Amino acid sequence: MAVAGSELHYERRGRGPALLLIQGMGANGTHWGEPFLSELERDFELVLYDHRGIGRSAPLPGGASVTVPGLASDALGLLDATGIDAAHVLGISMGGMVAQELALAAPERVRSLILGATSCGGTQARATAPEVVQRLTTVALSRDRERMLRTGFELVVSRRHAAEPANFAQFVAAAQQFPASVPILLAQKGAADAHDTYARLRAVRVPTLVIHGTADELLASINGDLVASLIPGARLELLEGVGHLFFWEQPQRSAELVRQFALDARVLSSA
Is the dihedral of CA 148, 151, 157, 161 positive or negative? Predict the structure, then answer.
């Protein structure tokens, strides 16, 4: 579908109020995982899409830049193009940054806001630990695909989850579908690095749930604490011993948190 000058791939599945799902850096719609999506589609019409330059969306033109506000404009454009007046919005990691900008720019389009494993950015946020950055850099320079997949898996889930061979096999199967190119990964990283909503989150006026795993190595859970403290009335849900991709590790529990919060927000808004 043509959105904001780019061709975005999207899917709609399930029945109920619309739930827009916004993925993180390098990820596409398949990376939500079927267990998580199948739980949610019983109560929501899911709208999932691939960011510009990612997955099955059109490639990013050479020299084109990526910004978090620009990606939020894409999300808003997708709602316009699909005829959805307002939706519950779930954003993960970089997608959580996009969801923050969407809620700030067009609060009337957001029925509830669920921010997962994300950050407000800026100097107040906790950056990824230097040793984790060094580990990622080293494995990227090695150009060893198997090593890259293994390291990536170990950094986005808890050690307990990573220890199960079957879990790694599922991760590899998803990662090998529509892999992101190095240029788009660098463009998205630049966008995430520039993200800063610290001074603006107090202006968010939609019901907000923040979910974060306490074993998140990419974005420490203190970032979830900070985001929740800045948004008026936000609820914080910490998942003990769970990594960055909490919805991958605990799909049923994660879906239930999203479901209950969004449905409760709907009841409150209609009261």
Answer: positive
